[in-house]
Write a structure and sequence with these properties.
17% strand, Rossmann fold, 431 residues, 11 strands, four-stranded mixed sheet
């Protein structure tokens, strides 16, 4: 009896030391990886020690960021879940950074190191997250659940940081200093002009959002719009906004899956909705778009994109966005979209424009507005953990767009019978 008790006591005495050895091991492995950083200067503060990492590129101002480790648990999260574990540790306030956007940019520029961090023990967590993602498949039932987890967070939350049009997609900036409202309206008008919208047109929109496009098109171009969403919160507010604008006779709001749409329309619009369909349904999406258009119809699809050469790899992984922000989502590449449209439709690509640099500015503006409204966010009942998650989401995406790891394109497609005048975009200064 006594020997057993002593054995337990020794185990308990040894536990903190074993815990410490594991922390030191994981910390050492982390520092070894960061020692290879290029084109940056990363300052790490941990346990009273300051370590400067990174190698600047000659003739180029390095990116700089500082991180402070608040708990050794950070290293265990990293070891188990890689980059998602880093995000989880941020959400739980286990580490801090003076410039999260710069930090994301550092890791994007050093993606080979980031990829290595996803290996080893992190593979187990990665496999588990992949398994969870499989159950997020965008069937009709699954889609409603996935969309609700993000877009039904509460209309009042999104109103705090979006523009006056309530557009939850990239604006188009000419000048970084111009207002978000101006840039968001420019994006809407650019879409309408690309589609050559006319009062006689009947437009179908896949992905209503809060009605921003439908309201703009009906009000300024006089067309009819039939638009659909599967978010109950979005549908309710969009219905209210349409009624308040006196446009109920021009705009039809549906609460139904895009796969259940029927009829034929002059024009089709889908603004950053394709990311929510799931890669398994890419052919379904393009086949449906084509079937909804008249023989001379036009379609404008705005999509967040990943680099072609990283698309296949991205499909096999679950990052922070898939895990916590947009369950069931994926980011298509341009070549994947064109290959799909070519397989299942007669749509022809007639114009492509990358507005990715504007998305970085859009995200920065959302982040600024979100931070300015933190008291209101808390009053709505959102926790500090949610706030940290949201801040990481906005910084994570901004850094990716700045470094061009992700883009945002407007694809203009035409049916075989379309004979419109060639679209020539305005020649204006770019970011």
């Amino acid at each position: 009896m006594n020997s057993t008790t002593h054995a337990i006591d020794r185990t308990q005495d040894d536990a903190p030391e074993a815990h410490g050895r594991m922390t030191r091991f994981l910390r050492g492995r982390f520092l070894d990886a960061l020692a290879q950083l290029r084109d940056c200067e990363l300052t790490l503060h941990d346990d009273g020690e300051t370590i400067v990492l990174g190698t600047p590129t000659a003739g180029r101002e390095p990116l700089r960021a500082e991180i402070r480790i608040a708990s050794a648990e950070f290293y265990r999260r990293l070891a188990l879940n890689g980059s998602v574990g880093v995000a989880e540790a941020w959400m739980d306030d286990l580490w801090h950074c003076d410039d999260p956007v710069a930090l994301v940019r550092i890791f994007v520029r050093n993606r080979d190191l980031l990829d290595a961090m996803e290996g080893g023990s992190a593979r187990l967590g990665g496999w588990l997250m992949q398994l969870l993602h499989v159950f997020r498949r965008n069937t009709r039932t699954g889609s409603r659940k996935n969309i609700a987890e993000h877009y039904d967070l509460g209309n009042d939350l999104f109103r705090l940081f979006l523009d006056e049009n309530l557009m939850y997609s990239s604006a188009i900036f000419i000048d970084e200093h111009e207002s978000l409202d101006v840039a968001a309206t420019r994006k809407l008008d650019r879409i309408c002009r690309k589609l050559d919208l006319r009062p006689s047109d009947h437009v179908v929109e896949i992905g209503t959002g809060w009605g921003g496009f439908a309201l703009h098109a009906a009000k300024h171009y006089g067309c009819r719009v039939t638009t659909t969403t599967i978010s109950k919160e979005q549908h309710a507010l969009a219905t209210q906004r349409v009624a308040e604008a006196g446009l109920s006779d021009r705009i039809t709001l549906l609460l139904q899956d895009y796969r259940d749409l029927d009829g034929q329309f002059d024009k089709l619009v889908s603004i950053e909705m394709i990311e929510a369909i799931g890669h398994q349904y890419l052919d379904t999406y393009f086949a449906k778009c084509a079937s909804l258009l008249k023989p001379d119809g036009l379609a404008l699809i705005q999509a967040i994109t990943i680099e072609d050469h990283r698309y296949a790899q991205a499909l096999k992984s679950v990052d922070f966005i898939k895990r916590y922000i947009f369950p069931g989502s994926f980011i298509p590449s341009v070549s994947a979209m064109l290959a799909s449209s070519g397989r299942v439709s007669d749509l022809k690509l007639t114009h492509l424009e990358d507005i990715g640099p504007s998305y970085a500015v859009t995200l920065r503006r959302w982040h600024e507005r979100f931070l300015a409204q933190l008291p209101a966010v808390r009053e709505l009942g959102y926790s500090d953990r949610f706030i940290r998650m949201w801040r990481w989401y906005l910084a994570y995406c901004e850094g990716g767009f700045i470094e061009r790891a992700i883009g945002d394109v407007q694809l203009l497609f035409a049916k075989p019978g379309a004979r419109r005048t060639q679209y020539l975009p305005d020649l204006q200064p770019s970011l």
